[in-house]
Specification:
The structure is a homodimer.
Chain A lengths: L1 E7 L3 E7 L5 E8 L6 H19 L6 E8 L2 E3 L4 E5 L4 E4 L1 H9 L3 E5 H12 L8 E6 L3 E7 L2 E2 L29 H5 L1 H10 L8 H9 L3 H25 L3 E5 L7 H14 L8 E4 L5 H13 L2
Parallel strand pairs in A: 1-4, 4-8, 9-12, 12-13
Antiparallel strand pairs in A: 1-2, 2-3, 5-6, 6-7, 9-10, 10-11
Helix pairs in contact in A: 1-2, 3-9, 5-7, 6-7, 7-8
Chain lengths: 301, 301
């Protein structure tokens, strides 16, 4: 049997047919369109799934589940999206709306939790029981895996990595001053360089590239960025002591040099007892969302 | 059947006979004496247990387990104390040494984890599946309960609440600047008042008492202390989203006014999705350590 994983994003809706070993057999995506009602959004997802099976000649009958990763707060138990601000969605019975058309069981989860589950099972954290996957991009996302399963907390909202690391510091979009996201997101790196008087580099990639080319100020900004990133990682490791922390998202594309500079800093950031935790770059890239969503059905079997 | 819980501390060793409902039938304590070898420390524990059963006329034969809470890093699986700095103990096979004399199964855990387990089962967090218990005293301790069980991380060291909340700030004994313990411990409160120029109050209790009596500077210090306490609590709640946070330790003796000032601050400290987490003062006081240690055997039945 196969599973469809849907990665619902504010820019694209991507879907893939995934087998039980986490391999994507086919994938397809469409632009996300802000919809006036829940039925229209559900229809977009349904049509994407139908197109995917038609194009791959895989019969819907051998698809045993659909999983949807949602950038927001969901209730997996009720199949409800409680709040997904970037999608303009609130209180949407997404599993019901998609499932009633396709006649296939639908599972939902937060998208960062899906990525963490995929990395923990088939990616950089495979073989571990307890892991954290952090996604560094426009924001800082995260998912916690405990005993091989997504830890979603008491009300399905755990793993929000909004933690204050510099009380009284830079204001985060979450409303708190000194929050990790304001430092460890791409915008945090751009701000570090701006504070050094450089305003012509406006993306994280530009700044990393300049640092690699020997630009001293860009190197200083990357250093300050990485230090703050590691302070927050250290907090997570001291609290949760995972076997491994996986770093994903656009910024993780900086590769081995970046992960090495994290590894060098971490012994100083954590208690002695927590120095056995490992650090690795995410292995599944953008596919983690689709694979993790598809796994929601696999792991419920 | 009954269970003995031992709360091994750097000042006292306390032990109690506990029934399966968490009730302490009898308790006894002796001074902790720094010992040269593991056998002597084990003997102190064995003698305390023996005295306890003799004095209460409860036969050792109806004691089905002994649990020991240790202020340090332990390996529950191997019955080893890996490191307990305050006791001067390293790599001690404590379960074996105590068990071979008393011929009763011995279980061990970190003491803060024991207290968290006790509060989660019979105390302020009873009825919850996921909770955090924070102990505010000379240091800041903590235990995480997930699905009714102690979460001990990958290498038995989870729940160390050393998290940086003010990067570059006050140096903590853990070696990191701006660590929560340096602000939320009793010493953190004393320092807040000292920074306001007041040096004649050297305990947290004195400062809380003065604040209650209308001393403006003491009130300012308590305010700054509580704000920092809540920043760290907010981080924990955003990451773990427990149903309830229990506040224990000496400072929690400040009672309802203190917990009310925490509750008032917390909505501002956490994301909207995490505002359903509750806050409560620990219910079991100093007995939590004994009860939680005794439960190690109960929960293994």
């Amino acid at each position: 049997m196969y599973h469809i994983g849907v990665d619902l994003g504010g820019t694209n809706i991507a879907a893939g047919i995934v087998d039980s070993t986490g391999k994507i057999l086919a994938k397809k995506s469409v632009l996300f369109v802000m919809r006036h009602n829940h039925e229209e959004l559900a229809e977009d997802i349904v049509n994407l799934c139908k197109d995917l099976v038609v194009e791959t000649s895989i019969s819907l009958e051998i698809i045993s589940s659909i999983g949807i990763g949602v950038p927001g707060v969901v209730s997996p138990k009720n199949g409800m999206v409680m709040l997904a601000g970037n999608l303009g969605v609130e209180d949407m019975p997404i599993s019901h709306l998609v499932g009633q058309v396709l006649k296939i069981p639908v599972f939902i989860e937060n998208d960062a939790n899906c990525a963490a589950l995929a990395e923990a099972t088939f990616g950089a954290a495979s073989g571990s029981r307890n892991s954290i996957t952090i996604t560094l991009g426009t924001g800082v996302g995260g998912g916690i895996i405990i005993d091989g399963k997504i830890y979603s907390g008491a009300f399905f909202g755990a793993g929000e990595m909004h933690q204050v690391i510099r009380g009284g510091g830079v204001l985060c979009q979450c409303g708190r001053q000194g929050c990790w996201e304001a430092y460890a997101s791409a915008g945090g790196l751009v701000r570090e360089l701006r504070q050094l008087g450089v305003t012509d580099k406006t993306t994280a990639k530009d700044i990393f590239d300049a640092a690699h080319s020997g630009d001293i100020l860009a190197q200083q900004a990357v250093d300050a960025y990485t230090e703050n990133l590691c302070i927050g990682l250290g907090n997570l490791v001291n609290i949760l002591q995972p076997e491994i922390c996986v770093i994903g998202g656009g910024i993780s594309g900086q590769g081995q040099g970046f992960i090495d500079s994290i590894k060098n800093r971490m012994p100083r950031m954590v208690l002695g007892v927590n120095r056995d935790t490992k650090y690795a770059i995410a292995a599944l890239g953008n596919d983690a969302g689709i694979i993790g969503a598809a796994m929601l059905g696999i792991s419920s079997e």
